[in-house]
Design brief:
- The structure holds two protein chains of two kinds.
- Chain A is an alpha+beta fold.
- Helix content of chain A is about 40%, strand content about 25%.
- Chain A has one domain: Beta Polymerase, domain 2, CATH 3.30.460.40.
- Chain A contains seven helices and nine strands.
- A seven-stranded mixed sheet of chain A has the order 3-4-5-2-1-9-8. Chain A has a two-stranded antiparallel ribbon with strand order 6-7.
- In chain A, strand 8 and strand 9 form a beta hairpin.
- Chain A is globular.
- By secondary structure, chain B is an all-alpha fold.
- Chain B is built from four helices and no strands.
- Classes of the chains: A alpha+beta, B mainly alpha.
- Chains A and B meet through helix 2, strand 8 and helix 7 of A and helix 2, helix 3 and helix 4 of B.
Chain lengths: ~160, ~70
Amino acid sequence: MTDFKALLRLLTDNQVEFIIVGGAAATAHGSARLTLDLDVVYNRSRENIARIFNALRPIQPYLRGAPAGLPFEWSAETLAKGLNFTLITTLGALDLLGEIVGGGSYDQLVPETIIVDVGGVHCKCLSLERLIKVKRAAGRPKDLEAVAELEQILDEIP
Amino acid sequence: MSTMKDSQQTPASKDLDPVIEAYKKDIDVTLIRENLRLTVDERFQQLMQLQKFAEDLRRAGRKARSQ
């Protein structure tokens, strides 16, 4: 099980610059669909990568689905060399995304975010309108199914 | 031939994806309305409870199959 609130608190407490996207963002907007991981787009600045490294080190991040024993060193250098990381941690599944299809990078997405309060933790979340565009651009069957629900949510909001 | 008037009318209809529209028929709007009454924090709490329930069901299924 992924402890979404604990992960968000950990990132926020360490001043990590990130945006909630994907299924967790859909949950924040009222989706009833089950999602198992926390997807975030993170700022790729050197300072922020250092914050992510320090924030996640205590929860032992490892590549999700990778065979046991595969050499993987959690370091700021590893983060800087890669872009998107699908991780399993002691708090659950966390996807660190440098960019997303149809959305781009952290800087490109920031103007289209809202601040959500998750148990007293305030963090950026992709706006509903932008989330719909991103899901449409991703275009997988599960994304289009999600778009159907998100557009219904948009219709329900006064 | 398209005219200015036509092009002004098309954006909304262009966004209509038949696959998405087909999925919409199966959406339970009552669940959405219930969720929209909750705070964001309560929505995440509900998600985590659902995850736990799904995991409990998977575990029960594995156990039943192994017997």
